[in-house]
Design brief:
CATH architecture of the largest domain: 3-Layer(aba) Sandwich
Radius of gyration: 24 Å
Number of strands: 14
Bound molecules: uridine-5'-diphosphate-glucuronic acid
CATH topology of the largest domain: Rossmann fold
Shape: globular
CATH superfamily of the largest domain: NAD(P)-binding Rossmann-like Domain
CATH class of the largest domain: Alpha Beta
C-alpha cells in the first residue's frame, strides 16, 4: 500500500513515560501538533519547563525545542488532551501482573476515561505493549462506531529511543479498517520507513514475538559462552563467525550477565502466559527465561570461584547498576539480580554507576565515583557496559584494591592490557589453559 504523507496532524499522547514522552516529542519533531498527558501533576509541571525525568540522549533537546515552537505541550489528565485530537496514542504502563500476565488496568482505565471525550473520526492507537486481543478489548470499552482502534507497537530501545523513532527500521500498523490504518501510517510518512500493515492481532503479536526472539538469541549466546569456557573456545571469535552470516545477523550477540530491563523480562513472561492461556506449550520460551535466571547464578558462580569458593567477608566492587549502558533504568537490571545474589552469599558490595544512582537495595552501598568503589575490594566486577569503564586508570585501581582481580561480565575491558598491569582478568566465554578432554 502506498502511504500518503499527510498534513501535520493533531496528536494526543496519553501517558508520559518512556514510550509516551518519546512518541510525543518525536511526533512534534516531525511536524505534528502534540498534547501529551500524564496523571502525575509534578511530572507534568517539570515537563512543561523542559525538565526531563529520564536519561534519554537527545530527548531533552527536542522537548525543549518543540515546547518553544508550540508543537508540544503537557497537560494533567487525558481528558485535557484528547478533545481535538485526530489520533490518540495510548502509552500507559502495562506492568507485569502477579501471574506473569500483562496488567491492563491502566490501558482500560485510559480507554474508559477518554471514550466519550473524542470527536467523531478520532483514531485511538495502542502503543503500549499489550497482549493479543487488547485492541478488541479497548474497542469494546470505547464502544463507538465512529472511533477506530489501531495497534502500532513501538520498537524503541532505551538509550537510543529518539534516533530509533526518527530512523525506524519499520513501522507496524495493525488495523481492521483501511482509513484508520492510513491515517496512523501517514503520521510517520516523512520518515520514509517501510510500513507493515497487518490486522490488530498480528501487530500485537509481532511486538511480543520480536522481543521474545531477541531474548532467546541472548539466552542462546550466553549458553554458548558458558560452553566456550568449558571447551576452551573463545566466544568473541565464535560470535564474529556467527554474526557474519546475514541469516543470523551481527547484533545481539554479546554475552552478558543476563538480559533485563523494563521490556524483555515482562514481555517474555506475558507471552508465556498468553501461550498457556491458549493451551500452547511454548517450551522454548520457558527455557529462554529459565536460562536467563541461570545466567545470574552462573555469573555469581564465576565470581565465587575467582574468590576461592566463598563470598563470606569478601568486598566486591561493582561497576554498573543500569540494565544496560545509555540508560539510568535499573528495572529488572541483571546487575541488581547479580548483586542480590552476591549479598545473599555473604559478600559486601559497593556499586557505582555513572547515571543510575537512585537504586536502593539492602546491603548495597553506593560509591560516587569508581575509584572509591574499588578501594579495598577483593574483586572488581563489570556488570554494565558503560564505555567510560574502559577508560579508567587501572594502575590506580590496582593500587587501591585489596587484590588486583577483575571479572568482566560484559567483555568490555582490554584483558591483555590489564594482565600487563598485573591484574588477574576473567571474562565470559573464554577460559585460558583449558585441557580439552
Ligand atoms: C528492547 C528491544 O530491543 C526494543 O526493540 C523494544 O522496543 C523494547 O525492548 C521495548 O519493548 O520497549 P530495551 O529494553 O531498551 O529494548 O533494551 P535492549 O537494548 O534490547 O537490551 C535488553 C537487554 O539485553 C539488556 O539487559 C542488554 O544489556 C542485553 N543485551 C543486549 C545483551 O546482553 N547483549 C546484547 O548483545 C544485546
Amino acid at each position: 500500500m502506498q502511504i500518503e504523507v499527510l498534513e501535520p496532524r493533531s496528536v494526543a499522547v496519553v501517558g508520559a513515560g518512556y514510550v509516551g514522552l518519546t512518541t510525543g516529542a518525536c511526533m512534534a519533531e516531525i511536524g505534528h501538533s502534540v498534547i501529551c498527558a500524564d496523571t502525575i501533576r509534578e511530572k507534568v509541571e517539570r515537563l512543561q519547563v523542559g525538565d526531563i525525568p529520564i536519561h534519554e540522549p537527545g530527548l531533552s533537546d527536542i522537548v525543549t525545542k518543540n515546547l518553544a515552537s508550540g508543537h508540544l505541550s503537557f497537560v494533567v489528565g487525558a481528558a485535557a488532551a484528547v478533545a481535538d485530537a485526530d489520533v490518540v496514542f495510548l502509552c500507559v504502563p502495562t506492568p507485569q501482573g502477579d501471574d506473569g500476565r500483562a496488567d491492563l488496568q491502566y490501558v482500560y482505565a485510559a480507554a474508559k476515561e477518554i471514550s466519550q471525550l473524542m470527536k467523531p473520526g478520532t483514531v485511538v492507537v495502542n502503543k503500549s505493549t499489550v497482549p493479543v486481543g487488547t485492541a478488541d478489548a479497548v474497542a469494546a470499552i470505547i464502544d463507538r462506531d465512529d472511533i477506530e482502534i489501531v495497534s502500532n507497537p513501538e520498537f524503541l530501545r532505551e538509550g537510543t529511543a529518539v534516533s530509533d523513532f526518527l530512523n525506524p527500521e519499520r513501522v507496524v500498523v495493525g488495523a481492521q479498517e483501511t482509513q484508520a490504518a492510513a491515517r496512523v501510517a501517514g503520521l510517520y510518512g516523512t520518515l520514509g520507513a517501510p510500513i507493515h500493515l497487518t490486522d490488530t492481532r498480528s501487530a500485537e503479536m509481532s511486538k511480543y514475538a520480536a522481543n521474545a526472539f531477541l531474548a532467546t538469541k541472548l539466552s542462546f549466546v550466553n549458553e554458548v559462552a558458558t560452553l566456550c569456557e568449558s571447551v576452551g573456545a573463545d566466544v568473541s571469535d565464535v560470535m564474529k563467525v556467527m554474526g557474519s552470516d546475514s541469516r543470523i545477523g551481527a547484533q545481539f550477540l554479546s554475552p552478558g550477565p543476563g538480559w533485563g530491563g523494563s521490556c524483555f523480562p515482562k514481555d517474555t513472561r506475558a507471552l508465556l502466559a498468553l501461550a498457556n492461556d491458549n493451551e500452547c506449550d511454548f517450551e522454548m520460551l520457558r527455557s529462554t527465561i529459565d536460562s536467563n535466571e541461570s545466567q545470574f547464578d552462573r555469573v555469581v558462580g564465576r565470581i565465587t570461584g575467582l574468590l576461592g569458593g566463598s563470598l563470606v567477608g569478601k568486598k566486591i566492587a561493582v561497576l554498573g547498576l543500569a540494565f544496560k549502558a545509555g540508560t539510568d533504568d535499573t528495572r529488572d537490571s541483571p546487575a541488581i539480580a547479580v548483586i542480590r545474589r552476591l549479598i545473599a552469599d555473604g559478600a559486601t558490595v559497593v556499586g557505582y554507576d555513572p547515571v543510575a544512582q537512585d537504586v536502593v537495595l539492602e546491603g548495597l552501598s553506593k560509591a560516587v565515583e569508581p575509584y572509591s568503589a574499588a578501594d579495598g575490594a577483593d574483586i572488581l566486577v563489570i556488570l554494565t557496559e558503560w564505555a567510560e569503564f574502559g577508560k579508567l586508570d587501572f594502575g590506580k585501581i590496582s593500587e587501591l584494591m585489596n587484590q588486583a582481580l577483575i571479572f568482566d561480565a560484559r567483555n568490555l575491558l582490554a584483558g591483555e592490557d590489564l594482565k600487563e598491569l598485573g591484574f588477574e582478568y576473567a571474562s565470559l566465554g573464554v577460559t585460558e589453559n583449558v585441557a580439552v578432554s
